[in-house]
Amino acid sequence: MTSKLKAWHQAFLLRYSAWLLQGLQRITFWNDKIQQRLSAWGLAVTAALVLTLVFGANIKLSSIYQLFSLLLTLFVVALLVVWLKSFGKHQQRLNVRREVPKFATVGINTTYYMHLENPYQKDVAVFNISERLTTPKINLNQFLNAKEPDEEKRNWYDRHTGYYRFVWLKTWLQGAVFSSQKVAGLEAGKQRQCMMQFIPLRRGYIHLPMLRLRFAEPLGLAYNIEDITINDSILVLPKAYQLPNHDAWGGQRKFQQGGVAQASHVGDSEEFSHLREYRDGDSLRHIFWASLARSQTPLVKNYQDECFSRAALVLDNDVASDKHMLFEEAVSVAAGFAMAEHSQEMLLDMLFVGEHDHAAHTLTGRAIAHQTQMLETLAVIEAQEGSFSGLSAAVLQQAENINGCVLVFTAWDDERQALVQALRALSLPVAVLLMQEQGAKTVFDEVVVCLRMGSIQEGLDAWVDKR
Fold first, then answer.
1. C-alpha span between 248 and 342 (Å, rounded)
2. What pLDDT is stored for residue 465 in this prediction?
């Protein structure tokens, strides 16, 4: 009986959550419609209409109904003007072009420019210009597993209705918060440039499909809206936690097969060592022709083997759906390693699970690729639940080519412990950075560093000082 009761209770909670999600979607939809159509004065008049309707319902006891009639008349006239003007939209009023940056970074205020041109013979009055992003479709699983930052500080009602969580999740999925810009009109045949700003909220691509121009009617209560389709996109790079300028996590330098040829260009090392006598099979490009002309004895230039550090950065993207915020922090930690000013003698391999559960690999350092390329990879990396075995096999296969390994985990289970033990059995220096929620149980292991949500940078600083 108890199990049936629990099953009924869980089914009820799911149905209630689904009903709540649908209600929140409708509320936010109409709220956006009203805010886009009405100005601040229009919203004030609407609130005054409601108040005068309530307090002036009895016309025999109060004369507030007269104010209600006046406000209602103004409101109806404003809506009527907007409605009549909507029939006059035969073509877009302005030629608009965005000048957007190629990259942005999470949490950093970014500026771009809008180029406006009025090709017609009539001046355009004051208007507002803003971005219209595609409304994301939030499913029940996302709504239940999402956690608004500092949600635990809200009161019981706000936590259980989930309104603020829904609004935050919707904005976060859209990717950024854009500010609107007021343009003080544009004369016929003239051009103007206005500055727009936005703050990226998450990594990945932000798609900009549409611009909205809002023209106020003469009373300034409502707006006439004109949408212009212009497609652009911006790649948002993840934020990066800072690491001090040291290569202790990269392991010791050792000989790398292929030397600099492997690390920076195709060909032999350019680090000259000494001259020696010619032997059969030596490349003609290495013959020292001056000695052959003087002494009639061919000598060959000898180059020394190259030794440098090559470290592996393993980003575990086998993450459950309810740990997406932990994964975002893990990506930011990995971005910190990508941005670290490690020595020019160092290569950095990043391994993670890509498409179709196959391990993917990115290599930077020693002029092979710029760190921005690794950040671009981190910007679009996605969680692949249940794919850790393929990543583990790829790491062990790569172990013979590296001399230091940093693993960024969001869990500490048997599979991950087995991988760490296998790497340590190969006498490979290993460091595990374990992302944890606040209050999670600390893992006591000499190679494990627990990084708690909200204090990631402090944890990294303490780890570096300890090393």
1. 9
2. 56
